Protein 1
Amino acid sequence: MTATERFLATIRHEEPDRVPCYVMGIPPYSRCYKEFVEKERKGELEAFFDDDDNIMITPMGDYTTKYFFGADVEMTGIGVQGKGRATHVVKDDGTVDPDPEAFSRLPAGSEGRYTNGETIHGVKILEGGDRYTWYLDGALKKKEDAVEFYDEHGWLGSLPVSKANVDAYAAFNTQFGDRMYLVPQIGGVQLYESMWVIMGQARFAYYCRNDPAYIQRLVDDRKEAQLNILDEIARYKPVAVFGGDDMGQKGRPLMSPDTFRKFFKRPYTEIFKKVHDMGAIAFNHSCGNITELLHDYIEAGLDGWQSLEPASLIDHAALKRKYGDKFLFVGGLDSREISFGTPESIRRHVRAQVLAMGRGGGYIAGPTHDFLTETPLGNCIEARDAIQREGKYPL
């Protein structure tokens, strides 16, 4: 089967020739990426690079590295213009450096904080100039500050949408669809994840209780932005649309089912209906364990869940038994196992997850998230090969 045929059979809950694979991020500072680049430089990957079919220089970009790591499916994002606002260094006294170039001049080895006006992040400049960043806090704690910020810089639902490159997308799936299928992705305006971070979790809980209309206004603004993005994505005539919203933690969601129903179920119903109206399925990324939200999420129209972190105590076999005939599962391979396991333990883990979720189709295997910083290249190759070997149907 081609990658396109494999993907289409899987989302239709048919059994393809083997389980497809989706690889999330491969950070440039990760050990596996550095080892990949070094082996390529030394000519140790000639068997791969000597085959022209492995060189995935496409109209939508270079997907060669993802193909090497085993991806049959890849995503291409469309977001709103202006969402990635300028970043500024936050000085030790808490004030913001007014020089917009100060952030780009941080030297290698330095650590600090920066803000884009909505959130505050920590940053470490790695050797070679790569930036390792992490979330620290919201920059718009109070309602009046957020309203003033969005009134000045634009509410997300009013910002222009990046344009879909329809010709390039069609050319990709026509010319390279035997090796990889490209799925359009809604980028950067998650209803929950991009909303609570501007104020922090404590303030989110506070406003849920004391000013629910304000929370709903922020959620609906992001919903409008997603609907606008979907108007652009519709030009691709997709069979699937990938979204995302981190709503889980270890063992349980980050909110109660009641909170999901109150603020998020209706907006997601509108979003998923728009996806279905274009003839596509809707599947979302979420870290953590959102099993308690799935019933309402599926009632809203969700068709699949990507990530499925074993570390978050998900019962993968139970999910497959309950929803597997109509729900797409993507991911499910423990990032810790891929990072620190032996070849034998990685193979056992891949086989166990494929058996738990792959019968009857409806499963795309892959690491739950980006490869961890410490992940060696050899372990990534072992996971890739195990998916392709253990995932052959019949299981």
Note: The two ends are 16 Å apart (CA to CA).
Protein 2
Amino acid sequence: MRAFPKSRTTPYPIYLLLGLFFVSSMIPAPIFAENYKKVPTIRENTYKLLSISQREFKNRDTNKALSILDKLNKTVTLNSYEKAMMWNQYASIYYSLDNIEKTISSYENLLAQDNYPKALKAKTYYNIAQLYFINKQYPQVINKLQHWFTLTNSPSAEAYALQAQAYYYLENHQQVVDSINKAIDIVDKKSIDPKEQWMVLLQSSLDKLGLEKHRLSILKWMVRIFPTKDYMLSLASAYATLNKQKEQLAVMELAYKKGHLNDERLLLALTTLFYAQGVPYKAAKVMQKGLKDKTITTNSRNLKLLSNCLRAAQEYEKALSPLQQSAQLSDDAETYYQLATTYYQLARWDEAAKAFTQALDKHLPSREQRAWVLLGQTYLQKHQFEDAINSFTRASTFSDTQEMANRWVRYTELERDRYEILKDSAELEQSIQIK
């Protein structure tokens, strides 16, 4: 597993799911001296009271177990080891009663003792770190874990992950990355995959640090192992941030095939991606299925988008129906203009002339000059020469189409004259044949 950078950049928010680590089981019996020199011994009377308290605790008589400890606590001659074991037993009982505050207080009293076994001290630091985490006291979590790290030669990946979560809540995202990397290194050496929760935490902090390229590699790993909707969409978003639209489309299409894109916003996003990447036919298929399944709303805007996709795929006949519906729903000049140009491309001159006229009647400021030119060409195809000349003349009043429109006026006049000559010749020939 690759390591991740230590540089800082601008944070960027993302949704995160965090679980909690559970407090490990408390130490049930006295721990004898190890790695400490001259650790005091537990005297017989103290050991007897601790054993009785523990027995009552196992019998679920916590009140009696606590009363025995209270009696022991009043003994002024207790040495540090005996006090440590007494406070450890207090902590076990209070934890069983879900009294986190008193459990923490008991452990703090234990840690305040001078001389007791290193194993007990290490265990206590780890236990109290987890309790502080449950209590949302994140600076204390970090402090206790740092002490614990100094007491162990083989820190666990879970401890670094717990440290990372505390740093996350303190918004120290570079430390989150560093801690999770250490956890990953530990499990990687054992050929074990990192836990999903760690990777969620890591990619979130990388995102907040603005390290999208590094976050991308984590998300790719997560999608391979856990191909869920959330991870796929996060990966697609990461590709989009890096302007990798082809890769973004590939992930979105995979999510679509797996049934993860089941709301209008995501389906329209996929349609737009297909269209922008030059795959309009697939874009149209997504729209058609969404409209049929009613996961995409049947409104003017969406019908127009479907028509655009079909037109881009050169499916002009199929593009007509949704565009007609869109025009009826919106009564919009731009939609009628688009409908007219579709009719024009299909050489359906009567419908084209009607739609161009409707568009112009509804005021078409951005395309008016072009609409007059196309209307003139449509009339020309219908041999309605006077209407064509009038349309081209209107187009000539706009500066950017003036020269072209004047040429069309002259051409139409010539076509009109030629058509009249041909018409007269045909009529004369027909008259001669009849005679």
Note: Confidence is low (pLDDT under 50) at residues 1-37.
Protein 3
Amino acid sequence: MIGFGRRGTAAVVASAAVVAVAVLVAPAATAAAPVALAAPAQPADGADWAPAGEAAIRPGVMTETTGGGVCTSNFVFTSGDRTFLGQAAHCAGTGEATETNGCDSGTGPVGTPVAIRAADGTDRVGTLAYSSWVTMQELGETDPDVCQFNDFALVELEPADVAEVNPSLPFFGGPVGIDTDGVPAGEQVYSYGNSPLRLGIEQLSPKVGVSAGDAGSGFSHEVYTLSPGIPGDSGSGFLDADGEAVGVLSTLNLAPLPVSNGVSDLALALAYANAHGGLGDIELVNGTEAFTPLPVGVPDEQLASPAGPPLGG
């Protein structure tokens, strides 16, 4: 597995379970299956969020953690009167991109400054308020699935910036809640990656994919998207076919499912943060925009589900 974000590179682990490849090829596309639309979600606790089209801070804006790397933010969260952007814990990693086990990988501490590249072209300053990697190391976590797949962090926003936040995922809208029952093989997923390698071409950011099933006792989901997540997409939020938040883009997998992405389960990661993070009751904020699997302005060929290799083959 390869973790994205740190220093903008992706190295390769060679082991019995992981096979290195030199060239990444996008999977073939098939026709998109019909998906029911979900009802519009409401802001949390009556919060007065900025309009989606005008918000400077929203899911999908880039973050750059001091001493770590450049990543894509996923969703908006609150705890009491505090507001956070989600990112992957490995975005604060200080080791190599091949270090994906949060229980023994190098990482910056809680309190590390995080630059937020706002949608209006300005930079804001946030603070790393929670990291699953830091927390697991402090607790001495030993569960191998939790260590490998719990990849979630929260960047606290300055109070003065909260009025410029909208919690809706660009293009697709939502989230409309949190998925808690996994993502069965074949279910469609939706994401928005904002890697600088796309040179700011926003039409290349929306991604539609298909699940290849759960892994790590449900702590991870293996997904294929029409083009796989690339360095800088780390931390991107994924929605399921109902517009519920599934998880956080964590790794590029080279085997046994070549060029698939590993997505850390949000429900389990958030439960871990609430149990051990010391931030109180952290809640996902639903989007103000209705979820749609067919967003305006995205070419039809980008909305087709990719066909991965035969499951179990």
Note: The longest strand covers residues 206-215.
